[in-house]
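Severity: low
Component: inverse-folding endpoint
Summary: output formatting inconsistent between runs
Steps to reproduce: submit the following structure tokens with default settings.
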């Protein structure tokens, strides 16, 4: 859907606005993640990582054009840095790699499918990219292979559930308010409502 079409001004504004909001939330989520890690260790941290992929998936689900997931993650990362992240280099790197991960999932389906399984796959690709990036940057030598495996598993689950399913729920809720009627998601929902209305009259 919309493959090959460039973003219009309205789409850029909405994508940027959503990404900026999530960039601010991302910074706050780090402190929550550190709190959880102190209680549950790296496995608990893994369960939270899907949140850091939501900006890209929500924007891609709403706009449905190539490059949106990557651009949204990059804007969110840039915002996180501007509002006070102390690890600017790593945050920017994660924005790039997570964006590429999520974008790859949509590209595999030629940007024609934005169904829940594809969104969940995008979340999993994004959290896997997070895992690889942090492994290269920080290393996990202090953890056993079992703990590292469990952390990766929880990150993939978080990517599927929190980033994939959660992003769909957030975007669908926004669409129901009518604010997305001029975007691909809103147009699809409006078409579905019309079809249901016609079916109920038959």
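Observed output (run 2 of 3):
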């Amino acid at each position: 859907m919309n493959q090959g079409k460039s973003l219009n001004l309205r789409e850029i504004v909405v994508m940027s606005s959503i990404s900026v909001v999530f960039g601010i939330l991302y910074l706050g989520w780090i402190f929550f993640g550190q709190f959880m890690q102190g209680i549950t260790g790296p496995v608990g941290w893994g369960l939270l990582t899907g949140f850091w992929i939501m900006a890209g998936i929500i924007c891609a689900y709403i706009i449905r054009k190539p490059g949106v997931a990557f651009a949204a993650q990059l804007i969110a990362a840039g915002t996180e840095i501007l509002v006070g992240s102390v690890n600017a280099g790593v945050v920017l790197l994660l924005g790039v790699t997570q964006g590429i991960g999520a974008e790859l999932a949509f590209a595999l389906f030629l940007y024609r499918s934005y169904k829940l399984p594809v969104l969940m796959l995008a979340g999993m690709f994004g959290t896997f990219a997070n895992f690889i990036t942090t492994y290269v940057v920080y290393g996990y030598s202090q953890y056993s292979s079992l703990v590292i495996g469990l952390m990766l598993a929880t990150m993939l689950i978080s990517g599927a559930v929190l980033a994939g399913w959660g992003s769909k729920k957030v975007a669908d809720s926004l669409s129901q308010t009518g604010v997305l009627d001029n975007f691909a998601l809103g147009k699809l929902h409006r078409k579905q409502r019309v079809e249901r209305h016609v079916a109920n009259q038959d």
